[in-house]
Amino acid sequence: MDVIPAIDILGGRCVRLTQGKYDSPTIYADDPVEVAQRFAAAGAKRLHVVDLDAARGSASNRAVIARVLQGSGIQLQVAGGVRSEESVAALLDGGAQWVVMATAAVRDPHLFERCAFGHPGRILAALDVRDNKAAVSGWLDTDPVVLKALVGRWADLPLAGVILTCIDRDGTMSGPDLQTLARVRKMTKLELQYSGGVASVDDLRRIAAAGAQAAILGKALYEGKITLEQALSK
Q1: Which of the residues 54, 95, 156, 222 has the least number of beta carbons within 10 Å of its own beta carbon?
Q2: Rg of the chain over CA atoms, in angstroms?
């Protein structure tokens, strides 16, 4: 199973939120480029970069992300506020290997389909789950769509995979939501990445056993609960 460090950017700085709450971010670094370089030096092959400002539609950190792309020498999957074909093309043209679509994947299936077929193998669908509902608009809202129907809608698209984030566990280091992971694993044959609550190497082993091909690590790395070297050698 792959391990993918996360870099969440808010106001140009590297932060972590707890359960997606914007009102109390924890700032870990002023320069996300330095964080990306540190992860690359530790052996990471891919980074998960989220533009939190763009996700909620308040601003954009695209210039910072461009610096990360240029300065880290590592493959990036970029998320946050990607809700148009132009945004997808700009990120891919700028050097991102994959683009993550969340709100559009849930609420604009025709746009999402065009992006998937226009860039086969380069688009990831974000399944952000809160209270068994899909969260959208930077996790500020939820959509009543049935998860199984939503994931089924993606089945025939040439996607790079699905990222499952269990929001109630995100940033809590309370352990992964293996029940939700197992349910989603049964819903799709696409490559599945898991995020939310990971705090130990044992958590990573359990995520792999539940069928995920990759785990995204955030707060546990920044708080020193687990080193990237430990995670990669699990």
Answers
A1: 156
A2: 16
Burial label, 189 (beta-carbon count in 10 A; 0-12, 13-18, 19+)? exposed
Q: CB–CB of 136/144 below 8 Å? A: no
Of 143, 116, 121, 129, which Cα lies nearest the Cα of 194? 129
Supply the range of the domain harboring residue 127.
2-232
User: DSSP of 20-43, one letter per residue?
Assistant: TEEEEEEEEES-HHHHHHHHHHTT
Read off the pTM.
Answer: 0.94
Span 46-75, pLDDT tens digits: 999 999 999 888 889 999 999 999 888 899
Helices (H), the chain: 32-41, 52-55, 62-72, 85-93, 103-107, 109-118, 147-153, 178-187, 201-209, 219-222, 228-232
Evaluate if residue 140 carries a pLDDT over 80. Answer: no
**Enzyme catalytic residues:** 8, 128
Q: Which long-range contacts (CB under 8 A, 24 or more apart) does 85-93 make?
A: 85/111, 85/114, 85/115, 85/118, 88/115, 88/118, 88/119, 88/123, 89/119, 90/62, 91/65, 92/119, 92/122
HSE, CB side, 13 Å, CA atoms: give it for residue 189: 4
Q: Which residue has the tokens 């293996």?
A: 178
Q: How many structural domains is the chain composed of?
A: 1
